[in-house]
Amino acid sequence: MSIGKRIARIFRSWRFRGNDVEDLKDKLDETYRTQTALLRQVRRGVADVATSRKRVELQLAALDQQAAQLDDAARQAVAHGNDDEARSVLTRKVTLEKAATDLKTRHADLKAEEDKLEATALKIEQEVEAFRVRKDTLAARHTAAAARAEINSATRGINSSVSDVGQAVESAERRTRELEATADAVDELVADGVISKPGESADEALRRQFDAALDSAEVDRQLEQISTPRKDDDGSDAIQR
What's the predicted TM-score (pTM) here? Predict the structure, then answer.
């Protein structure tokens, strides 16, 4: 993809952010309403043409019935030897037949117009339905994309919070270990008499330190005594029993 096309694609994506997306959805809804209104208008046109066609069919049926009656009247006049009456009746019949011919032409025109409008209505209906599907699909995709963006944003926020909390916990653990080490060292110094216990004077701490040193020296002496083999009177090592 060229740089120009990439830039154009970025601009197009910017055009449909925020309120622009809502404006686009409103325009799509308005277009759909316009199309459905046009479809209703076409269907009304089909219904009007169909009504006119049926009215013509009723007129044709009535003319056929009148023509048949005039034909019977003409036959009866001829049977009674009244040719003038028969000619007059047949003249009216011919006039009705001409009117019926005109109505049949009109009927054919209405039927053709009706078929054309029905085809147009079917095409518009298919286009409106296809547009509705695309519109609903676009709305669903936009909703899903917005939800995904919110989830990603929330996930990033959670990860950031977890990271911050983790760092805080690590810092607290490190500080706790330092405090524990300090406390242990202080306990050792207190035990050795290097520093005073709470409520203890400096002299008491020094005396306790001295006593601890004496105790340690005594422990070392006894350990050395135990470790050194005892000699018998003849100078040989005594066997411990």
Answer: 0.49
For the chain, 241 residues long, the average pLDDT of each consecutive 10-residue run is 49 51 78 88 91 93 91 89 88 91 92 91 89 85 77 68 65 75 66 56 60 59 66 52 41
What is the rounded CA–CA span in Å between residue 89 and residue 82? 11
CATH of the domain spanning 3-170? 1.10.287
Q: Reduced to 3 states, what is the DSSP secondary structure of residue 233?
A: coil
Structure tokens at 136: 């609903």
Other beta carbons within 10 angstroms of residue 161's beta carbon come to 10
Give the integer Cα–Cα distance in Å for 66 and 92. Answer: 10
Contact status, residue 76 vs residue 8, Cβ threshold 8 Å: no
Please answer whether residues 103 and 60 qualify as being in contact, where contact means their C-beta atoms are separated by less than 8 angstroms. Answer: yes
Helix and strand totals (H; E) in the chain: 4, 0
